[in-house]
Amino acid sequence: MPMTINKIAVVAPVFNEEAVLPEFYRRLSAVADSLPEAEFEFLLVNDGSTDRSAALLDGLAAQDRRVKVLHLAANFGHQIALSAGVDHADADLIVTMDADLQDSPELIPAIKLKIEEGYDIIQMQRASRDGESRFKLLTARAFYKFMTYLGIKGLVENVGDFRAFTRQVQQVACRFRERHKFLRGIYATLGFRQHVMPYRRDRRYAGSTKFSLSKMIAFALDGILTFSSAPLKFLHVIAITLWIISLAYLIKALLDHYVFDVTVPGWTSLVVLLVFFTGLVLYSLAIVGLYIGKIFEQGQRRPLYWIREGRNVEPVDDGCGQPWAKTPETQNRK
Ligand code: UDP
Ligand code: MG
User: Fold this and answer.
1) Is residue 119 scored above 80 in pLDDT?
2) Of all protein residues, whose CA lies closest to atom 3 belonging to ligand 1?
């Protein structure tokens, strides 16, 4: 059944984006003005910025009621900031995008049309990526191939966190409370009626990327460890293979000694075997350790994020309906 969209929420995480915020707001509100039939809210999540972003956001919220700002109490990272925004969105259609204008707000009308056709999730696929390094493109491709090899279903190559979905999808997605979020994997596995829409990903409007190499590696690891236990199963396969080989070798050694009366020359092979197997054992332990680390962090059941202040929006702590623990000071502080 085609749905009517009366309200659209645009969610964008903001971390030290003072150089792009005014332009992002200008382009976003132009798009919103071009769709007068829909009511808009711009849910901008300040992910612990240390530049003038917070002040700029407060300024926008003061002059435009559509601008809703969540100031997270610290830097929780892109995926959590995005989730905090989605938790707070109150709309028929929720669009998540970066604030650096790599994802064009001008695509929102086309996205809205697709949802009205009856899709539940629109995954925006980067058909071209301007201004990204060869290294980033290559590693992104290798990572996608690896994830597909591990059997994560529904993952689409070159789909990042520019996507749109209905309120129904939001209600389901906000129940995924893992600390180490890999949102593109979560939305890919949700099912529903999904549509992949190619788009041209622009250069960042201003400023520089907030993703260091180490953040990128941590993110890739989160993706693998929260979606697949294949590395653990792989250890099992290695262990069995080696066990069979060593059994064959044991038989050969015994035969050599007792039947053919040959003395096996030993030193080099012993050292090689020793180094190889201690390495392997340590490596296996490390993989197991990575999973245990995730279990440990999840087991602590800490909130995913907590909020310092909200503007034009009533903050709920850690989404999914937990009321924000208000104290008289935070209530009165302006
Ligand atoms: N971002 C965030 N918290 C972080 C890092 C980034 O909220 O710890 C935001 C950032 O402000 C931007 C979006 O996430 O709106 C994407 O970040 P960026 O453009 O630096 O990543 P890239 O496009 O280079 O992958
Ligand atoms: Mg960017």
Assistant:
1) yes
2) 78
